[in-house]
Every structure is written in C-alpha cells, then in structure tokens.
Automatic annotation (TrEMBL), chains A, B:
This is Probable phosphoketolase. Its cofactor is thiamine diphosphate. One of its GO terms (molecular function) is aldehyde-lyase activity. GO terms for biological process: carbohydrate metabolic process. Belongs to the XFP family. It comes from Saccharothrix variisporea. Keywords: Lyase, Thiamine pyrophosphate. Gene3D superfamilies: 3.40.50.920, 3.40.50.970. Residues 7-357 form the Xylulose 5-phosphate/Fructose 6-phosphate phosphoketolase N-terminal domain. Residues 574-774 form the Xylulose 5-phosphate/Fructose 6-phosphate phosphoketolase C-terminal domain. The keyword DNA damage does not apply.
Length: 776, 776
C-alpha cells in the first residue's frame, strides 16, 4: 500500500484507541454515541488519566504496523503511571483483552462493559495492572519500567522490548540509573530494548525536567547514557505519523544490524515529544488544557452538571469519528483491524508477558553434592553461602543451554561468597575491560551493578517473562527496594487470582552479610528489618527462611528455586558456621520448618525450659547456652527448638505454613518458660505468636538497634543475645533452682564483662568464642 | 610563593593524610615508626578501606589551599562509601578532630589513639559517620551524597559544597537522579554545589560503569546533566597537583562569575580519575594491587603472619616520609599546617556541618488563625491538609527573610492540598518556563521533583545544616525512602550521643493521600506500612502521629515543627473530614496524645465496651458505630478513645511517650472488650500493647492488604473496618445483650450488603455515607 494509506490506517487505529480510552474515563452508557450525550450517560465519579493516553496509543499503533510488516515479537512496557486507558483500549481492539475476559467482547455490549468497569468499584484501575493482558509492569509506582524491560530482554534473543518511559518517571532515581542497563545487554544472546522517552511535558502539576532542558542538553544526556536518539516531535497527526513511521523503520533496521554485528552497539532510542492530552479538548473554561498539566487526569471535570462541558465532551468524542471505526454492532471495522497483528504477535497476547506460559522447570542438581558431612553435630564448620555458591554454579551449568537462570547483585556476589558461580558463567559486561578484571564476559548470566533498584527491577522483569533467578544482597540494604518488593508482592497477589495468568518462578532473595556480622561496617549496615517489612504483604505470597547452617541453607535454597508465585526471603550468614545438621536431617528439618533438636536438649519430652532459636547467630548462642546449662545445671531439662521457616510460628488461619495450636504447644509447651533468640527485631516473634497459649511465657532476645563497629560476639553482648545472657534469662525464669541461681547469674555476668573488656582491649573475640564447638 | 612551592606543600599535606589513613588501617602501636615494624604493632583484625582514601585526601588538600587563598566557606561531602580513614586523617591534621575529641590530640599519643580506635571495637567505623567532624553524610549506604549537598546549599548563598561522588555510588538510582539537583539551585539565593566525580575505576570486586565508558560518552552524560566538566586525570602526583590546582582555580572563578550573573548557569564540575589505592603497594604476591579492585579494602592482608607483607607495609608507610611531616612528638610540623585553613574555615569545623550551631527558632504563626470553629462536635467538615497549607503559607511568610524553611514533595503539594503555600512562595525552578506554568520561580522554597529520594535527601541536607522543613508524600510511596529514613534515624541516634553535636530540627513527614483514599489509584497506592517501618528505629528518635481532623493536624504539625532531633511521621487525609474537636480541645488532646472522648461516649466512667480509634478514617467509623450503638442499644455504655500519638500505646519503658500501665488501664479498662479501629496494619497495635493488662481483650481492625480501585466506604467494608462491622464486633464481644444481639448483627450485615451492592451498581457511596455527620 502507499505511504499515505499506511498512515491513514495507523491514524484510524489511533483514533479508535483514543475514542475507547476517552470513553472509559467518561461513559457509563451510550458507548457508540447512538444518541446525543446526556448526564445519565456519564459516570458519577470521573476518575482516570487522559494525559499520557494518546501518546501511548500512538506508539502502540505504530508498533502494530512494524510487528505486522516484520513479524517481530514485541513486548510493550508502559512506563507512564496511568496508562491504563490506553492499554485497555488497545488490547480490547486487537482482541487480546476479550480472549482473557470473554465477558468483555468486541461488540457494543463489550464496549459498554469496557467503559463502565474502568476506575469503577469492582472494576479495573487507571494504571496498567496485572489484569491487563500483555503487561509485566504495574503503572502505579514509577521508576521501574526500563529495569523491567532489560530483565525481560535478557536471554530472549528474538524479543524486542518497547519501553515507553514517561518524562515524570524519568525523574526518579531508579529510572535515571536504568538507562545504563544497555551496558549489560548482549546483542547476541539477549533481546533488544527500545526506550521511547515520551516527553509530554508535565507531571501532575509541574513541568518535567527532561521536557524543559534545551535540546542539546537532552541529546547529550541520552548519548551519554549510550544511546543514539531519534526525535519524533510535534502535534500535527499527519506529520507525526510520517515521522514516527520513518523513525521506527530506521530503528528496527538499526536493531537488526546490531543483532548481526558484534561490536558494542550504540543502541537506538526514540524521543517522542507530543502534547499532553493530545487530541483532547484544547481549551476549557477559557484556559488551555491540551498540552498542559491540566490534561493529566480528566480534562473536562464537570460533565454531569455543566452542559458546556458535556457539549465539549461529545464534540471531543465525535472528533474521532467513531462511526468510521466501529460497525453498527460496535465491532471494530475489519479494515481497522488490518493493522493489528495476529495471534501471539499481538502485544496483548505475547506469551512473554504471561511468563508462566514459557516457564520451564529449572534443572537443579539437588543439594547432596554440595552438602557437608556431619559426623557429629556442631563439631565442624563451613561457610553456608560458599556451599550455596557451588550449588548455584551447577545450576548455571545445568541450565547453560536453556539460559533461564540469572543471579543479580549489587557488586556483592564475591563478598557474599557465592563466587564459585564464576566457574560456570561470567559477570555480564559489554563495555571496556582491563587485564586485571576477573570474570567479565559479554554473555555472562551474573549481573552486578551497584544499584539494588536495578538488580530488583531486572530480576522482576526476568521472572515475569518466565525465567528463574536470585537476588543476593546485603541484608541492611535490601530496604532500598522495600517499595519495589511491595509492588511485586502486590502484583503477585493479584496475578494469582487471574486464571489466565500462569504461575511464574518466585522472586528469591538471599540476604547475606547480615546484621550480626558487620565487623568492619558497623551501625549503618546493621538492619534486619526487611523481614518485618515483608511480613505485611499477603500471606499467600511471602515466605521467610532462616537456615541455621550450610545444609539447611542448601535445602531451603533448593526448595525456593522450585517454588512458584512467591517471594522467598532467605537470610544466611557467609562466615564459618557450625554444621549442626547432616544433609538428611537438614532436609527433614527444613520440610518441617521448625522442630525440636532432641540431640541438643536434655528434656526427655518434659522440659523445664525451652530455648528456641531462628537464624544462624541465634542458633549458635542458644547451643552454647545449652552447653553451659548442661555444665552448670546438669539436672535442668532443656529443650532446644530451631525455627527455619518463620511463617510456621503463625496460626494456620493467618498463613498457609502456620502451625495448628496443638503442634505449637507440643514444641513450645503450653506453660514452660521459652527463651527465644531471634535473628531480627524481637517483637516480630511476639507478633507471630501473640495468640498462642504460651505467649505470656515467651521471652524474646534479638537485635535491639544497638550497633557499632565491633566483633561478632560483642554485637551479641551489646544486644543481650549472647550465650551468657541467655543462661541468665533461663535462671531468671526457671523456678526452683535454689542458691545455684544467684551464683550462676553472677558467674555469667562476670563472663560477659570479661569478654567485653577483652574485646575492647584486643580488638577481637577470645579464642574460646572463635573456636567454640558443640561439646556433646 | 612559587607554583612549585605551592604544590610541595599540598603534596606534603597529602602525604601526611595518606600516612595517617594507612596508619589507621594497620597500626596498633609504633605510630611514628620509631622502630622497625613488628607483628606486635599490627592490629589483629585488619578492617578498613584504603581504595578511595588517597583520592579523598588529594581533594581535601587542594580544597584547603583554595579555602585559604579565597577565604571560602566549604562544606565537604564524602560520597565514597568507606572514606572514613581520609576524613579522620584530615580532621585530625587540621585540628578539628581534637577540638571535639580532646583525648585524641595532635601528638604521638593522639596519633596512636587515632590509629587504634579505627575499625576497632568501641572505636569508630570505616565510613564517615556522625562522629566525624565536618560531616553531614554517612558513608555507609550509597547514593545520597549529591542530594545532601544540594540540600545543604539551598538558602546558603555564601557556601560552597564540595561533594565527592564515588564512581560506585554513581551507579545508584538516587545518585543518578541527583545530578538534576542543579536545575533547582538559585545562583543568587542559594550556595553552590561542586560535584567531584571520583573515577577510581572499581567498586568492591567490579569495575564501575562510568570509569569504563568512552570519554566522549562520559563527557556527553555530564554535559547532558547540565554541567561543564573539567578533567583531572593521571597518576603522577606532581602532574596531578598542578592540574588539580589549575582546574580548581578555574572552577572557583567560574562559580564566582555564576554567583554574580543571573542567567541559568552551566555549573562546573570536576572529574578526578586517579588509581584506586593510589600511592599504596603497586603489586603484592605477584599481582597488581594499586589501580585495581584489590585495593578496595586492605591491600596487604597478611601483615601479621607474612614477613614480606610486613616489609611491604613498612616500605609503603615510610614512602610518605613521616619524619618530614611530623615532629618528634608526633605533632604535624608547622610548615605542613600552613596549608590548613583556620578556625571555622577548616572543613572539619564548619558550623554548617553541625547545623544545630546555626539553627534559629522557626517563626511560627500558631495554629489559631488556621483552625476551624467547632460549634458542635462532628457536624461540620473541612479538609485537614488544606488548613495546614494555609498555616504553612504563613510559616513561609514569617520566615521569608531568614529563609530557613522548605517544603519538599514529589509533585504532590497541590494534590495533597497544600497549595496555599504558593501564595507565599514559589516552586523553585531554574529551567525554561511556559505561559501555562504556575508558581514556578527561581527563588521559591518549595521543591517539587518526581523523586522521593531527592526530596528526602535534599531535606536531610537542609536539616543537618541547621534549617527546617517538611516532606509531603503519598503514604504508600514513602516506602521508596525506607532505607534513607533508616540511615537518617541511625544518624540522629548517634548524633544525639555526641555532646558536641547540637540539636537539629526534626525530619517531618506528612503522609497524605493515604491508604483509605485511593479512589482512582487502587491497590498499588494502598500501603500504610511506613509506620511499621519507622517503629523499628530507636525510640528516642521516632514519633508517629495520626491526627483525626483538621484542628488536631494543625496542633500536631505545630508541635513537630518545633521539635528537635526526631523523625516525626504525620499521617493525615486531604479529603473532607468531620471536625471532631475545637481548637482548644484539639491542643489538649494532642498534648495528651490519647484520651477519652467523653462527649462521644455513653459510659459514665464505667464502660461495657471501648471503641478505640487512631487515624482519620478509623475515627470516622468508630464515631458512626458509636452513633449506631446509641440508636440500637441505648443502654450500652460505650467509651470512645482516640489515639493521636501512637507511641503513647507503648509501655513507658519502651518509649519516652509511653503510658504507664495505670494510665493505659484507665483508658482501655483492665477487662472490658476493646474494639480498636486503626489506620494501618492491625498487628502493630498488638505489638504496641501486648504487655498491657487488657491485651487479650483488644480486638484490632485495620488494613489487611485488601485493596482495589473503589469508593472510600467500600474500602472500609473490604477490610472489615466499616461502622457496621464495628457494631458487629461489639455485639460479638459484649455479653448479655440477649436476643437483640442476633437481630442487630443481622441488621448490620444487611447494611453492609446493601452498601456493597449499591456501590458496585452506582460507582459511588450512598449519600447517607457521603453526607453523614455526628447526630448527637
């Protein structure tokens, strides 16, 4: 067809999408404007966002053309916050919406439903959410679109991820850093990301920075980020269509060239500068609206009560000439649909956006080859994360061909002692290398960048497109992605309720370099609160594991790598840790999630006191306290309970892993004192157990926000979780110890003082602490 | 003096700082190398970071020169994570360290103490922390240096903030966005920020992105950010000194020109490319160390056990020729100290870094002119944040001259209905404007940028340099700065313990657009968890307020704006809210923090049930439930308790605001059922009250992570916190209601269903909900 025809079709498609988007914001009824608009046709509450919509529709329509012409797989990522109307309109038009929601078919009835459900109670939100087909990216919180796009492109060599970045979003930190993602993308093994920076000039009430800096500054910035920008700027639809088509063809040609060459590419990108609220009312009540921040939400706000507004709305809607776009039954006319791709090529139907469809089982080596032999409990030591690194190395090897596993970290993979993975794969890196560099390769599947936001965002994009992965991070700094975690957990919560969304691999965190081992970092690096943060999200989504040693870590990690639709948080130290459990014991203990360590205790089923622990440092102290109690109060019946799966502590009504009361009572007794040494902030244990029979007897030790640069044992003393303090806690709570109590308390107190003094004099822990092993 | 002499002095000063930094990492004793090094002189645990240190020392020494020559006030911000050794060395050298720590004087004894305390139990951390004089920026978590620098420069027209940005830090999102800070800085009314991007090439184990991209790309990026970069690149000290001096003189001249011209400036910046671990051991054990990632921490790791390492260390230390730098008593030689500025001009002594020294009382108008008259409780309505906006307008006016109050927000000031402030000041903005823009001015004291990170970081910088401010933010998205809040709270926790640090104004958050009012945003915008996050930090630092109406919000805000050294979190809706309390009642109620609303209840001091509430939406529902109970069970004695200051719920042993048990029992009774409607996640109330007598009877309703796009009342129904549900809760818990109980329960259930159905049909709440007022 001729160029002019081409743009006519694109324009018609664009008008159809614009009409459908505006209709969603305003219309309760009369979707085809069969009769003149009356207030009764208008929604009582006008909620929605018009501003970004026409630009998104413009990009979508043009992408449709190139998808059809080039048979290209494209995943569309909608960065602008409230692009819901646009994506709902387009997926309805192309039919992918109706495929998943048969109750919203492509006819007048369906159009009415589409309009009515939008921003309506029980309906769909104004931003792109999990219920929008073709999406892997929530348009609520801003900043993560480009990171998601890079994550989606990794190991998808034939995929083009078209990512519209809003100029509001572009002001956020995570987005500003995400441009660098292209420095990791391998043109051979990975797909391409095409950023489309959409400058519509305004946020909610302010101009945007990138829309207002001079052209040469913007151009330098984007080139500085490593891109070659092409500009599509204007407001005349005909000119803009021609320009966009020309640019898009050029960009697709460039990408084709990049995919076939091997030099570090300069990736193309597009800058689309178009009016905010383009094609909407240009002026309302005497003030300009189109092209200003006033278009952000609802350009005409008083439609129900203000006849002039109603008239303007009707005029606006009719300006799209709906009668040319939809037939008498409200179906998009076949000639319009000529532009839409077919089947899975429709951006709303790409399986990449419903990653569970593409998900393959991760090939796992099992834990046995990496586990440590434990001839006698607690007498040997190993570094848990180092063993995990060896297991992950094998995961990389086994999945080298299917290339669907990645490890992300903010320059901490080696620091967290996972560096065995570099025997199987490299750190992905496309820019210059030096002879002293290690493990940098163009096609590596470890991504290290000093941005927790990027690590998290890229992993999310990778998982939601049907792959597997792990994010390793210093515990304290995981808080940097608190809000991203929130959004991902919310996404999964909604995703799980949508029957057409297939399960995806869980998002796995390994928090290492944790609060108890910040010997040379100190207070700023001491924060175990990510667990608390995670606990607020839906119980069906979140899981927290605190493996106490190497074999339990392996077992937990193996489990997490197999799981689906969860967020798994694993907290594990990297330092030498006693091997408490052999491989089989560890597997059994982790399957149970919590259990009595009979070999450690002296209770014979009827304890005087329960010493409970969750986390590696607390387990060590509880074991040492148990040993001290055996020595000093040999007739005391001590039970040791270790908790790996924190969710087990909750009632079964609160969490699927929750323990029934009977089981909880069997572990923790209904009435005996429980001294609970916990990895994080103590009150979390109270939160989880406050409904239990024995709650009043549970005394929790943990991190109480006292920290500094000091030795591991001193940290325990400062936070009252050291072995001596735990013994004192027992002595204080178990009745009937007689005069031994006071003596033992004094002796323990003396030990604490002695250690504290030694540490401050010598700068390290006493050898009896450093070399301590379980003596029984 | 001649150029050569000038650089000799700078070089000597630099060597002295390098010597002192290396000494800190290694030496337990023999600080002046009076005798050959032996293992006994070496610390048992070598913890510290050499890599970034010499570059920082280089910058510090050169800044000293220009400070002396130009009598310039300079605040030094140390971006690189572990710059502790450098700043400790420099402040000790110039004497500002000893001013604050007389036990670490400038002599051999002091030098030994300086060395020994570093990264030593009970000593000082390896990053710049509050205990380092001259610092407002913790070097633990990365990404915020430049935002802090801009915050410090606002309204400090004579100040130059020299901000060293590490190339690791430069990969973070917040830092990547912070470059744009210069687009707000007013050359006339604000100070200058001089970014010094320090490319030493490596993070912990990886090269950095910015050090490895081609020069033209880096240059374009920095120009794109709006700067004119000057480059100081190399490894030969003599050449580098000359180049740095030339560049620095040029930059200072440029800044002087900018301050006196009025066009939008192109701000200068410096790129310093120097080897990581510069002047340290170039090769160890046959592998290169200087100039590689191996210099990141301790270049020679085996000094105590490896005689070759010991030899290399001694050779390295002696290479600085300490005998030329320090006299026989370990005092820096006077000719060295010639370079150091005097008095407050020393960067370690600038009062800007100990902002409390400069802090003036904020001039406050009092709440009375902005409060609403309440002739009858709960019968009129107002928008709380709108009233606060009027009060803040006056704060801006009253402090227009002293210019020490600012409002920060991510483009939400108007959305949060604080826009009255624009009658007194503008939104600061130095780049292009259009006729349709509103309130943009070059010298405005409202900063709006769509980056919560920037808002938080700039406010922190502003506060720590002795000014006042408020950050207004959507509640859900405050989680974006969780980790920044952590670090600021930790900073304040440490700062409060340092006698020489003067109190600063509190960091005030106003969380509006909260979880209960996201009518057109939905699930992604619904998250009240920031309060939970805040609760983990030190009790002496954090405060949380939930004012239920306009007058209480004003009272709380007035209190927070007067407070010092805290983080205050205020959660308040922006929508029409019943005016429960008159101005005097509100002031009294807020002073108490929690209290019985006698006028609302029917208990006459002896209730059958307590209805408690915290937050505006919960208060509304509790009041409506109380009214329903009056109507349906007139003989039931209901007590209404409202909690404004959440910390009051804790035991007095846990928080300075905590209530004694007796007082708690007096409010909540020792044994009656308590139905507690709470703004956020319900279990927080359990956490705060689990030690109270009546805890087992406290039944909490709150947000249970059920959200969607719907009406305000539907949100309450979905989360079981609506008035009808609260009545059912009462009926279920108060014994002796007889057959009325079942009837009322059924009636309430019918009401819930009726509302839910209506909402889903009509898209809005029933008028009886929208227009409800307190009928008694």
């Amino acid at each position: 067809m001729s160029a002019s025809n081409r743009f006519d079709l694109v324009d018609a498609y664009w008008r159809a999408a614009n009409y459908l988007a505006a209709g969603q914001i305003y219309l309760l009824d009369n979707p085809l404007l069969r009769e003149p608009l009356t207030p009764a046709h208008i929604k009582p509450r006008l909620l929605g966002h018009w501003g970004t919509t026409p630009g998104l529709n413009f990009v979508y329509a043009h992408l449709n053309r190139v998808i059809r012409e080039r048979d290209q797989d494209v995943l569309f990522v909608t960065g602008p916050g409230h692009g819901g109307p646009a994506l709902l309109a387009n997926t309805w038009l192309e039919g992918s919406y109706g495929d998943n929601y048969p109750e919203v078919p492509r006819d007048e009835h369906g159009m009415r439903t589409l309009f009515r459900q939008f921003s309506f109670p029980g309906g769909v939100p104004s931003h792109v959410a999990p219920d929008v087909p073709g999406s892997i990216h929530e348009g609520g919180e801003l900043g993560y679109s480009l990171a998601h796009a890079f994550g989606a492109a990794f190991d998808n060599p034939d995929l083009l991820v078209a990512c519209v970045v809003g100029d509001g979003e572009a002001e956020t930190g995570p987005l500003a850093a995400s441009w660098h993602g292209a420095k990791f993308l391998d043109p051979v093994r990975d797909g391409a990301v095409l950023p489309i920076l959409h400058l519509n000039g305004y946020k909610i009430a302010n101009p945007t920075l990138l829309a207002r800096i001079p052209h040469d500054e913007l151009d330098a910035l984007l080139r500085g980020y490593g891109y070659v920008p092409s500009y599509v700027e204007g407001d005349d639809p005909a000119e803009m269509h021609a320009r966009m088509a020309e640019v898009l063809d050029g960009v697709l040609d460039d990408l084709h060239h990049i995919k076939t060459s091997r030099a570090r590419p300069k990736w193309p990108m597009i800058v689309l500068r178009s009016p905010k609220g383009w094609t909407g009312p240009s002026e309302v009540d005497g003030v300009p609206v189109e092209g200003t921040w006033r278009s952000h939400q609802v350009p005409l706000a008083g439609v129900r009560d203000n006849p002039e507004h109603l008239r303007l709305l009707e005029q606006w809607l009719r300006s799209y000439r709906p009668e040319e776009l939809f037939d008498d039954q409200g179906r998009p006319r076949p000639e319009i649909l000529e532009l839409a791709p077919r089947g899975d090529k429709r951006m709303g139907a790409t399986p990449h956006a419903n990653g569970g469809l593409l998900l393959r089982e991760l090939r796992l080596p099992g834990v046995r080859p990496y586990s440590v032999e434990v001839a006698k409990h607690g007498t040997t030591s190993s570094e848990p994360t180092r063993a995990l690194g060896r297991m992950l190395r094998e995961v990389f090897t086994l999945n080298a061909e299917q290339r669907d596993f990645r490890l992300f970290g903010p320059d901490e993979t080696a620091s967290n002692r996972l560096d065995a993975v570099f025997e199987a794969t490299g750190k992905q890196w496309q820019i210059g290398t030096e002879p002293t560099d290690e493990h940098l390769t163009a096609d590596g599947r470890v991504v290290e960048v000093l941005s927790e936001h990027l690590c998290q965002g890229m992993l999310e994009g990778y998982l939601l497109t049907g792959r597997h992965g792990l994010f390793n991070c210093y515990e304290a700094f995981t808080h940097i992605v608190d809000s991203m975690f929130n959004q991902h957990a919310k996404w999964l919560g909604t995703h799980r309720k949508l029957p057409w969304r297939r399960p995806v691999a869980s998002l796995n965190y390994l928090l290492s370099s944790h609060v108890w081992r910040q010997d040379h970092n100190g207070f700023s690096h001491q924060d175990p609160g990510f667990i608390d943060h995670v606990m607020n999200k839906k119980a069906e989504v979140v899981r927290v594991y605190l493996p106490p040693d190497t074999n339990t870590l392996l077992s937990v990690a193996d489990h997490c790598l197999r799981s689906r639709d969860h967020v798994n948080v694993i907290v594990s130290g990297k330092n030498l840790t006693p091997d408490w459990l052999g491989p089989e014991e560890a597997a059994l203990h982790c399957a149970r999630g919590a259990g009595i360590w009979e070999w450690a205790g002296t209770d014979d089923g009827d304890p005087d006191v329960v010493l409970a622990c969750a986390g590696d440092a607390p387990t060590m102290e509880v074991m040492a306290a148990t040993a001290l109690l055996r020595e000093h109060v040999p007739d005391l019946r001590v039970r040791v309970v270790n908790v790996v799966d924190l969710m087990r502590l909750q009632p079964e009504t609160e969490h699927p892993h929750g323990m029934p009361d009977r089981e909880f009572d069997a572990l923790f007794t209904p009435d005996k004192p429980v001294i609970f040494a916990y990895h994080g902030y103590p009150w979390l244990i109270h939160r989880l157990t406050y409904r239990r029979t024995n709650h009043d007897n549970i005394h929790v030790r943990g991190y109480k926000e006292v920290g500094t640069t000091t030795t591991p044992f001193d940290m325990l003393v400062l936070n009252d979780m050291d072995r001596y303090r735990l013994v004192i806690d027992v002595v204080d709570r178990v009745p009937g110890l007689g005069p031994r109590a006071a003596l033992l308390r004094q002796h323990m107190q003396d030990q604490r003082t002695r250690h504290h003094t030694y540490i401050r004099e010598h700068g390290e822990d006493l050898p009896e602490i450093r070399d301590w092993t379980w003596p029984y």
